[in-house]
Amino acid sequence: MDAAQKPAAVPPEQVFDWLDAEAERRADAGLTRRLRPRPATSTELDLAGNDYLGLARDKRVAGAAAAAALRWGAGSTGSRLVTGSTELHAELEHELARFCGFQAALVFSSGFTANLGAVTALSGKDSAIVTDKYIHASLVEGCRLSRAGIAAIGHNDVAAINYALATRRTQRALVVTDSVFSVDGDLAPLPELSAACREHGAALLVDDAHGFGVLGDGGRGAVHAAGLAGEPDVVMTVTLSKSLGAQGGAVLGSRRVIRHLVETSRSFIFDTGLAPASAAAALAALGVLKSEPELPGKVLANATRLAEQLTDAGFRVSRPDAAVVSVQAPSPEDAVTWAARCAENGVRVGCFRPPSVPDGISRLRLTARADLSESDVDTAVKVVSASAPPRAATS
Question: Contact at 8 Å (CB) between 96 and 105?
């Protein structure tokens, strides 16, 4: 660009004027978002959070976090490779790997950074990545940063994934998927995906955030339920903030995979380690899950009950394979209004709109928990039904 074409300088107070235009565009599309701080205690029935086993406030879990904070301090004080690794982190990694059936595990500060680290460290410019187009945003960002060639395939289309693997131009390949997709709660065809990977010499990376603690033997996850736990070509990621009611994330795999992540994953190397209190809370929650293996079944029963009753009420409802139940809304604006009315009537539900939903359909998103009673489910259905916009029901 020569001097004659150089844009005119703008005053400092106008540098971010473009943000106002973007905000107006989002408002016109019904995509305005805002934070809603909640109090420490609430009378609302919570079907919006991801505390699937109801352990976030369990005294055993919260007590372990408090005790760890007093013993180890409020923070981890540094990255995991400097001062941020404690005996709690090592114990948590050992117990997670043993419970889920893998050789080793590595704890990150969040599920987002775990996915980011796993995708980028296990791919690269000489790799191909084949993904389901509905994968979580953290996996999407990992793919974008990977420098790999990326093929985003139609939802749960195993034949298309087979074709993409067969026609790739690189030796290394990584198939990336959620186990349970966070929008509609449907389950990925993990055995078929694994078979495709093995036919074409690819690795399989599964984000089991919504399956761990809910599916599989004793809540060991969808990967375990599919018979893929501990397989040398399978890597699993989990979050500690859903079924375990804590904070953080982890990658599980073979010892050499975990060693590679320790030495190359930038979201691990350059990030402050998970706070000891969160590690202790996750450990305690894992202990509860081991001692109360009936909890996952309660989650699934409540999800089924929610879906069946909402379907009977005439709404377009997803079939829950795990804890997530979604109810389609006529528009983004209707979804926002619907969720707000539910909250006004004592039931907190999630509200998913573009770009959070890859298919462009706005939804209410309800999450079942193990500690919901039949009365809680009945109340939720009544409130959702009474609060619905006119075009929400199909009958």
Answer: yes
